[in-house]
Amino acid sequence: MNRQLPLILLILIVLALTSCSNPAQPFALSAAPWGDGEVSSYDVLGQDGTLAGTASWSWHKTAEGWSQSYELDLSGRQDRGEVVMAADLLPISSWRELSGTRFETTYTADSVTIKTTAPDGKVSTKELVRPADAVDNDQSLQLQRALPLTEGYVTRYTDVIPTSGMTAPVKLSVVGTEEITVPAGTFSAWRVVMDFGSGQHDGWYAQAAPHPMVKYRNRVSGAEFQLRSWQPAAGQAAQGEQGAPAAVAPAAESVPPLNIPFLIAAVLVQYPLMLIFPLLLGWWIRRRYGVSWGIFGAGALTFVASQAVHLPLNWALGLLGPGRGVALWPIAALALVAGLSAGVCEEVARWVVLRFFLKRARGWRKALQFGAGHGAAEAIIFGVLALLSLVSMLAARTLDLAAFGLPGATAEQARAAVAAYWATPWYMSAVAGLERVFAITFHIAMAVLVMRAVVRRRIGYLIAAIAAHAALDFIAVWGALRLGVIWVEVSAAVIALAALWLIIKLKEPPSMPIEAELLLAPAPAPSTADLAPRTLSPEELARRADASRYE
Fold this sequence. Notes:
Blueprint: H1 5-19, E1 39-45, E2 51-61, E3 65-74, E4 77-86, E5 91-98, E6 101-107, E7 111-117, E8 123-129, E9 134-136, H2 137-143, E10 154-161, E11 166-182, E12 185-195, E13 200-206, E14 213-217, E15 224-231, E16 239-240, H3 260-289, H4 293-317, H5 331-357, H6 364-396, H7 408-422, H8 427-455, H9 459-482, H10 485-505, H11 516-519, H12 528-531, H13 538-549
Parallel strand pairs: 9-10
Antiparallel strand pairs: 1-2, 1-15, 2-3, 3-4, 4-5, 5-6, 6-7, 7-8, 10-11, 11-12, 12-13, 13-14, 14-15, 15-16
């Protein structure tokens, strides 16, 4: 194997380890800041600043630890639930009733089981892997009171969302202090930002014990919670503004505003990079190196063929579909299996096609076009899906979801999904497009490695491609849950630069034959036997034919 290959693998491993670094402090909760019998009441303001509803939380000591109950009334729409916590404040179980649907969640040491009962009585169950830092979505806002908030504090946890059956990594950062005035009074508060990767929310927590949540703003819906009053514990005097708030205005279905910067970034950056750039790259390779579009198309078909194996394999492993199998493993093991699944399926597919079907496609230049086609197929598929998503979200802004027969909870989730889409930061569109550029660069580098495995008949190059592909996908899966989208994309950018260096480093002159080291070695003086005419075997003729085609 090329002596530089161990160095290449070392660089990729270092990049993977560097990308997985986590600068945040460990997620550690202190003692419960609330008292037995505490009740906190909030006014809920809509996007236009008018009163849209009320909310309240209450806490009670239990044999297990604590019970947190809440009630939310938004213009007559009721939402209530309870979270049972252990003494360390981590969740044991929870239930929530929303628009006639009941969600019941049970937390064990290794798993999370979510039982959903629809208004018609239909029951469904979903099981998830329980992260060590799992927090129930319905406790997270108030649980953050128990964190050691201070200037510059950063931590991470995993939010379990029973209503969607999903988990979301959350990065919490203290960004400063502010004097906040709400109906309950004026407070010196820590301002925190909760970053979900694709969006952010804001919270303000009083610096003085018991550190009540003074204000909370949901940037997606525009809703804002403001503390009206609280009773520190049973039997103690209530503090803040007493009495009922002003009358709540009737509910009105709001239409999420168009996110113009997001649309501009999508149209000018994301879609061109996903749909046009891959074709332009194939055209440039054709023009610069004279490699036919047929090789480009073969690379594209190879990606599609690899998915015909990859997707069923992921389903069998439990990486797709309901929670089971590998999906119940710890995050690091899950990410490793997901990476190996992608690496083996895609790189072996490249090797099979080049070895048995494209026997005349040999050399560094052909590898460029083959890898470009592979990456282009993936980019264009994602680009078409993104474009269809944009069209559907444009239409969904003004649709009456209830008219389509969606039950209450499902309609609410659909509205939240539409609002979340249009609240996506503009730069996420640009990042999605750039991600495809990084991926195509990586695919070309892997095609170059696999081409060497085929032409030089050295399986080590194929193993290196599988390992590198697995490392990249490991970072993508693990990082999405632990680091957030932006850090994953930064890691992908660094790896793409390493892949570009690899492409350039492995370039060979057009005339370089397969076994270059043999053909460039000094030839010994010919013997009488060497000068005698001889007949070449079919194997030797085939080997020399392959060598003459290698560029």
